[in-house]
Amino acid sequence: MRSLILVTGARLLTPLLLLFSVFLLVRGHNEPGGGFAGGLVAACAFILVAISREPAAARRALRVQPQTLIGVGLLVAIASGALSLLVGDPLLTGQWVDIPLPDGGNLALGTPLAFDLGVYLVVLGATLTMVLTLAEED
Amino acid sequence: MSGLAAAVLSGFVLAAIAPLVARSRHAGWLLALLPAGLTAYFLSLAPRVLQGERVSEQISWVPSLGLQASFALDGLGLLFALLICGIGALVLIYAGGYLAGHPHLPRFYVVILAFMASMLGIVLADNLLLLYVFWGGTSITSYLLIGFDHEQDKARSSAQQALLVTVGGELALLGGLVLLASVGGTFEISALSDRGGEVRADPLYLPILGLVLLGALTKSAQFPFHFWLPNAMAAPAPVSAYLHSATMVKAGIFLLARLFPVLGGTDAWTIALVASGGATLLIGAFLSYHAVEVKRVLAYSTVAALGMMVLLLGVGTEHSVTAAMVFLLGHAFYKGTLFLFAGAADHEARATRTDQLPGLRRVMPISAAAAALAGLSMAGLLPFFGFIGKELVFESLFELPGLAGPLLLAVAVAGNALLVVVALRVGLRPLMRATDRRPKGHEAPVSLWLGPLLLSVLGVTTGLLPAWLASELVSAAVSSTILQPVDVELALWHGLTLILGFSLLTLLVGLGLYAWRARLRAATAPADMGRRVGPEQAYAGLTALTNQLARRLTGWLQNGYLRHYLVVTLVTGIGLVSAALLRASGLEWGLGRLDLRVTEVGLAVLVLVGAFVAVRSQSRMGTVAALGVVGFGIALIYLNFGAPDLAMTQVLIETLTVIVFVLVLYHLPSFSTERPRPRVRDAAVSLGFGAMMTALVLFTLTPEVRESISRFFLERSLPDAHGRNVVNVILVDFRALDTMGEIAVLALAGLGVFVLLRIHAEHRQARR
């Protein structure tokens, strides 16, 4: 049974949730958040689509198979950790670059963010793999 | 990185790219260029090594553990390295012809090259752990090669048997090596060699010796672990020739020689090795007498020859070690030839039993000539290298004092006489006239006869010119084994000595055993039955028992009831954590610091009420909702204590839990209130787990525990990791490896759910 209110609400909420999940991911290093929470919020966004319409709609919105996200996430995490091997540090040593900002501030970008992105993708992929497969059980 | 490490690595690199050329008709010849080149490389180092120099190099391996990847080339290593690379080249050429057109030929090249590199690693390693890693490499590649024809039951079970026996010994070896390093203070073999006296005087010497011997003797197929080797003949002929005759089975011999300066020379060493080697020599020779298939005959005779070498190393005099090295070299030449010949005879003339060999000289003259030369060397005839080896064996045993001399000499004569029979049955029979049937077939292509011919000719030339070809090599090998400079002068003719008499006696006994073999075999048949109650049966029984135990245990632990799994997991957790807590009870418990506020008490009551309702609820939906109350209550507690990250994650997880519950609710069986007894059990487990967790939390509140980690993270988070959110910094930086493991588990869990549900769906579809 499809609820018009839910469908309309979900249409508004989904992009907001996704945006919020990225927000959580990026701010995670300094404020509450991080890849794990971000990934869960993003998963909730797609689950909302699946519940309000149908699982297939969530799969269409996702564009790729959730299992693919798992693999990509693991690869991103491993690659970000292996980067330090290239400069001779042990595996998973954080590497940082400082980017001066026009307003005089400083943006420190580092491999931990990429690692967190990997966590985000794995959490999103694994959660959606489970929930969508379960939802498709009839 | 310089020469030696590069030599080892090159084999692995070539293994990785071998599939690119493996389909070519000349792949064997092409790939053989590497071992041929390596042979040349080692020969170029030979002048330095033969003068007593040790070529060594070190590469930092795991600097934080002080581990060095150190390689060294001494006389012993040179002898083995030349055998490995020289025979390796011939075997690759041979395999190209023998397995031409085989669908898995690329895989074969990959594995055999990896084996060659591992074997080279063993003989060049100067670090016990490095040696062990390569040792393991040979076990795995040997397993893959024995099981090469994996569609055959026999190949699979033989491969498994070889793996279990040798890897079982390998585990013992690891224990022995670690103990040895702890006693000797270093993993470097060259440094250990200087501390042999200390090691032998240590109370741990006997355990070390026992464990190392287990590793070496299983690898070299010594009684009672000999049974895997004949079964390993399920592998293709080039593998039998290379791994199970010329090189890998000699890794055990190599290890004994390598560790001789550290462990050798004691009574325990001598008794263990002489007893095991002597028994293996006699049993192997006897079994070869009864075997019928060519490859089995050769395999048992290899077992016997390995026993001979172990015995000689056990005796441990300068002469006996020399005899062992010469015997080893000669054995590699003639046994390699005979195995390769056996493969060619099977391949080109379908001759797999010894009674099918007569007459083969007509159809495959070159191969038969090679086999004959090897047979004569094996029988120990003049002027072959085998003769020199046998003379040295008899001589070194003859000079032993007391009863040992005559006794061991008798064993050696008996064993060698039986080996003469093998030489006649496999090497010389092709020259004999076929009595009942005319063999069909044709001469093998050049790739199949080149290897045997070269090896057998080497057996003659080293025999004729031992001083020129082998003396220095053997001298260097013996010198680096007993750590004394020795100068061995190998000569073919010693004059009419008593030793020559023993050689003659061996030959005559051998001829007699051959001539009357039908009658003798019938007479000794009952003893051959020993094979059926022997160690192989013990192996079969042990594996069956293990399987049975595993089935029982799995049936008990994983009976399919989720609540059973939970109970087992929780009870185990309670037991282990409580035990650890009780042991650490010296710490001050954090009870004194509890000053509760109203909000905290309120939240605690909320959680408790939720838990109570969840337990008492009569409907599943009610339970789910009540559990939600518990979860959100805990999230509020986190928030109350200033942990927004945890609270947020908890809320998200609770939300997802409800969603998952809703999705699976429909599929669950009806909600039943259980009978009283399981309820009591569940209550006890839950309360126990709760009590344990409470104790654990209180324990972590004690100052000693809290300070040690938290302060470090709080202080270093911003300067070291550029992050103010300490929780997240721990997750993605300080403890990133843990997180790595966690997301890997999460990934597998996701895929597991996916696969299980898909299989379920397919089953249902199939039923429709």
Describe the structure in your own words:
The complex is a heterodimer of chains A (138) and B (768). Chain A is mainly alpha-helical and 138 residues long. Chain A is 70% helix and 7% strand. Chain B contains 36 helices and 2 strands. Chain B has a two-stranded antiparallel ribbon with strand order 1-2. In chain B, a hairpin with a 4-residue loop joins strand 1 and strand 2. Chain B is elongated, with a radius of gyration of 34 Å. The model of chain B has no long low-confidence stretch (mean pLDDT 86). The chains are: A mainly alpha (138), B mainly alpha (768). Chains A and B meet through helix 2, helix 4 and helix 5 of A and helix 32, helix 35 and helix 36 of B.
Quick structural summary:
With about 140 residues, chain A is mostly helical. Chain A contains 5 helices and 2 strands. In chain A, helix 2 (about 35-50) packs across helix 3 (about 55-60).
Count of helical segments of chain A? 5
> Structural class per helix/strand content of chain B?
mainly alpha
Quick one: biggest sheet of chain B? 2 strands, antiparallel
What pair of chains forms the biggest interface? A-B, 50 and 42 residues
Number of strands of chain A: 2
Helix share bin of chain B: over 70%
Share of helix of chain A, binned:
over 70%
Question: Span between N and C termini of chain A?
Answer: 15 Å
In quaternary terms, these chains amount to: heterodimer
Rg of chain B to the nearest angstrom? Answer: 34 Å
Label the overall shape of chain B: elongated
Largest sheet strand order of chain B? 1-2
Shape of chain A: flat
Walk across the major sheet of chain A and give the strand order.
1-2
Secondary-structure content class of chain A: mainly alpha
